[in-house]
Structures are given as C-alpha cells and as structure tokens.
Please model this.
Amino acid sequence: MEMAERVEELRQTLNQYGYEYYVLDRPSVPDSEYDRLMNELIQIETDYPELRTPDSPTQRVGGAPLDAFVKVTHDTPMLSLGNVFSKEELVEWVERIEKDLGYTPTFVAELKFDGLAVSLKYENGRLVRGATRGDGTTGEDITQNLKTIRSIPLRLNEDVTFEVRGEAYMPKRSFEQLNDERERIGEPLFANPRNAAAGSLRQLDSKIAASRNLAFFAYGLVSQDDLVASHDESLDYLKRLGVAVSGDYTTCQTADELWDYIETYVTKRSDLPYEIDGIVIKVAGYEEQEQLGFTAKSPRWAVAYKFPAEEVVTTIEDVDFSVGRTGKVTPRARFAPVSVAGSTVTYATLHNEDFIKEKDLHIGDRVVIKKAGDVIPAVVSALASERSGEERVIEFPTHCPACGSELIRLEGEADHRCVNPECPAQLLEGLIHFVSRQAMNIDGLGEKVITQLHEAGLVHNVADLYRLDRDDLLGLERMGETSVTNLLSAIEQSKQNSLERVLFALGIRLVGQKAASLIAERFETMDAIIAATVEELTSIDGIGTKMAESIVLYFEKPEARELVKELAESGVNLSFKGMKRPTTEGAPLSGKTVVLTGKLHEMTRGEAGKQLELLGASVTGSVSKNTDLLVAGEKAGSKLAKAESLGIEVWDEAKLLDFLKEHA
Ligand code: IVH
Model:
C-alpha cells in the first residue's frame, strides 16, 4: 500500500474512534488499540514529514506558544440572547412571536451550556479557524487551543465550507480534577467550570489548554439555508458530519410544552456531566427566524430561560466606598466568603444611600444574597431577627474617599457625587474605561498597569497614553521587553480605531456603545460632533434629549476640546470608518429609509434589501416616524399596521418588482 493511502486510512480510523470516545462517549475499541494506531501514524509522519497536514489527529497539540492572540472580525456578529426568568415571561415571549408571525411556529428547546461561545470555521471539511466571541464583532483567534479539544473535529465527514457556533466548556469532572490538583500544588482555585474554561482558552501555550480536558457542543450553523431549512435540521446535519451536538434538544409546539421541558431540566441539571445555566428556546424554521429578525443585541427568534438564582445567607463584614468615572460614590459590602450558584462571593454593590436605608442594612448584619441573572451578586434582605445588638450603622461619607472634597447629592438624585474634576479616582476610572475592550481595546493595559502608570505620574489623562515611551514603561514593576513592545504596539494600533470607539471611550455621561455608533455614523468626524446642537443630535433615531444635552455639555468644557485636540495631534483617528450604506447621491432611493416585512415570493427579503441599498436606500428593521417606505409581502403584520397608522407609503411585492426592473 502507498504510504499516503495508509496515512489516510489511519486518520479515518483514528477520527472514527475519537468520535466514538469523545463525542458519543461510546468507545468501540480499547485505549491501547487507539494508541497503537496513533503511534503508527506519528511514526509515518516523522519519517515522511511531507505527509503531515494540519488536520491530522496528531496535530492537536504541539505548535509553539503564541506571542499574542490575533484579533478576528466575525463576518456575522456573535449576538447574545434576551432572557426570561418565569413562566409568565416565557408565555409573553411566545405570544409576541405568535403575534408577529400570525401563527404558532415550531420551537426547539435546548440546553444553555455554561462555557464560552466560540466560532469554528470549516473550509472544505477542514477546521481552519476557531475564535472567541469577544465583543460580538471582534474576537480572538484561539485555533491552537480549540484544536486541543477532542470533541471538535479537525476534519468533517463531508468537504463542506461553513461556520459553526457553539460552546466550549469544562466538564464537571475535569473541573474537580483540575482544582484538586491546583490545591495540591498550592495554586489558586478556579471559582467555577466556566472561569476555568475561559482561563484555559486564554493561554498562549496550547499545551496548557490541552491538559485541561475541555469539551465542546455545537448549537448552530451560520446562515446555511441552502443546506437545511430549520434549526433542528441543522443540529441533525452537524451530528452527521461528526460535530458534537447535545442530544438533549427537543421540538415543542406550545408554551406549556416548553415549560415542561424547562421543569425537567431544573431537576435533571445536577445529574448532567457539565454545567448548564438555563434553557435556550429558538423558533425552528429559518424563514420564520428571518421574518422575526433581530434587535440591536439579540435575535427576536430566540430567548434564554435562566434558572432561578440560588440564595444563601452570609454576614456583612464591612462596607467600603469607591469613586467611579463620573464621580459617583458607590458603597460596596464585603461578606464572609460564601458559595452561590457555583462561585464564591465576597462583595456586592449596595448601590446608594437609599438602598442601604430601604433594606435597613448594618455592618455585622446577617443578609440573604443571590446572584442576579446568575452572575452579579446582590443583597436581597437583612435578617433583622438574627441581630445581636453589636451591629453598626453604615455611615455614608460626607467627603470624597479619594480626594477629600465635599460630596454633593443633587435634588431628585440617589447618588452622591464628587465634583472635583481633578479627583484622582475619577481620572483613573476614566483611563480604565478608555482602554477597555469595548472602548479603545488596548490589550495589555489592564487595571493594574494603568494604576501603576497613574501612580507613577506618567499618565494623567487619556492623551498621555499616546505619549508613553519605552523607557517610561520599562521602569514599571514587572514589565519586560516583550510586554513593553506588545503594549506599545497595541497603543499604536488603537490609533486606527474608528470614531465610534473614541467617542464611547471618552466616557461622556449616558453615551453607550450603540449611541456612539449612531452618532459617529451620522456626523462622521469628531469636529462635527463637537459642533452639533441638541436638535441635530436628537434628530438621530435612538438619541434622546438627555443624552444629547450631556454631549453638548461635555464638549462645552474647554478641557474636553483640548483633550480631543491632543488626541488628534498624537495621530488618533477621529473619523468614521465603519460601513457606510451606499447612499450614492442622485440614486433613486438616496436618503430614503426602507423597511421590508412579510413574505416575498420572487426573492428573499435579504436579496430585496440588498437591491434597494444599491439604489441608495438605507434598509432598517423597524418602522418609525423616520421610515419613508414599507415593502409589505404576504402575511405582513404589526409593521404594516404601524406604517399605515403613521401614513407611510406602502408597496406590495409587484410594485417593488416593477420599481427594481425600471431601475435595473
Ligand atoms: S444561541 C444568536 N444556544 O449563551 C443566538 N447560545 O447569550 C446565539 N449559549 O454566549 C446563541 N448554550 O454562548 C445559543 N444552546 C445554546 C447555548 C447558547 C449556551 C450561550 C452562548 C452565548 C450566550 C447567549
């Protein structure tokens, strides 16, 4: 037999055995047989290196450690899910779907795995890239680490090209073994399997990830409506290709059936070999999904039911007060450490003075705490009956804990604020926000380094970041040549960010990421934003008066304008680079905002949208007073009603086709 043929045969057999062992959990041969074949393959590949390929089962570990992860942009954003927390909320969600579609669709109910969302790209059946979700738009290339996960096939059973989305997680048993081992060698323990999985996938050396026994479940395929017509078909299809899919999903026709499924897993959950934090419900049909569409953050066709937070009792040992970016002073309770819903809790915010009064909290009180949405710890109530009389009143400070200036509490506001613009705590928080992932995304500038830079007097405001040189950084504790080089290059790279990141990074009160994007897209340059009036800002759909006033107020301050000038002088890009919709001047639909709804027969709504955009239209998802035209296909529902009530022009499919033909 030709050596190449033997290699191919060994790979196929090993892939099959690996699939049975790691995906199906049903090994068909003893481990020794697997090892024997693997050793043969390793030997051949050593003797004939030209036969080694990246998708060979020998290639799961072994690459050299990386210097840094490369950022990747997701072609299709990785969204998150809206949540429901009760049967009532679930029923409401189902009713909304029924109302939007005009009938009840089939739903798929499946487990919500508690790990990390990842994207796997396959080309001609071969795994070519694995990436983290990141902020949903930009993630990191962690292919080397994902290749170490045995339930992720390096090669599929068919030579297809597509992107799979799923969850990388750490099984409960791997987690216990890992923490036992860490305890033995005196390493800090991981709080829960999700943190442990995240920590493992963040390692630059894939040998570490390989030693952590991670696993993977696929939960979706990115836009493959030519291959399959529904979500459940996509799961079956993935299974056929050799991808790990949990067998626990089911289809349901009613809210009651969905609720039954949820209740089953509230009990079954503790018997599963991995953690789940809820149930995900998806409208099955792809056409229906398309019709329902998306909000800014999540699909309307899916929702997560989150399991109720576990509640436990602990003691408030002390309360400290910190100063945020906007000068807001926040009290935080420190507890005797306690485990809630799988992780250890030591702190929780007490929000403000009113919250403390309303819950009648004292230092020394026994309190009930829970994890809100299973993530953020929150104080539910104090157990007044357990008081000994030793408890102390929580005194709210009258002066800033960071700079000592007097705090103010405005009429009608719950918060105490420090209004000293030079307050070091505010400057520090502002810096931390500026470099954060959602803002300028400067890797390697975490809270610790920023604090060091700030304390060393090297960075006073955000413009100073761009004046740092090698010697400044080498002088810091625990900063070697390589970290300094990486950091300087990350700072340099951040100068190329598009305007919306800079605008968000400035930390203007009330201006979130979404608003920053809308404003940047409309005004295109920072100078234009600085010159904008409240009226101009509020003319953007999604920008309210309060936010507009806050922006105008911010840029009225000479310090703010000076800061922007300094950033520009350092070479920071202050113009919008994002996707501009083609609004070619003079095009027939230039300046027109169009919404598509209902079912079209001659083409999909996506195709129609693209053609309309080519003719200058900007196509959006929801009808508002800014909509100029609604194209309504069959079974158009609430959008049509709304457009009619607003007196917006409505076209049917025939009119659309005529128009497209005329302007082809
Ligand atoms: S679907 C566009 N299905 O939950 C919808 N997500 O907030 C994308 N997750 O970070 C998500 N199990 O990683 C989906 N069966 C499942 C899931 C699941 C866990 C995670 C996902 C994401 C988060 C959604």
In short: The pocket of 2-(butylsulfanyl)adenosine is lined by residues 79-81, 110, 112-113, 117, 167, 219-220, 280, 299, 302, 304 (CB under 6 Å). The chain has 24 helices and 24 strands.
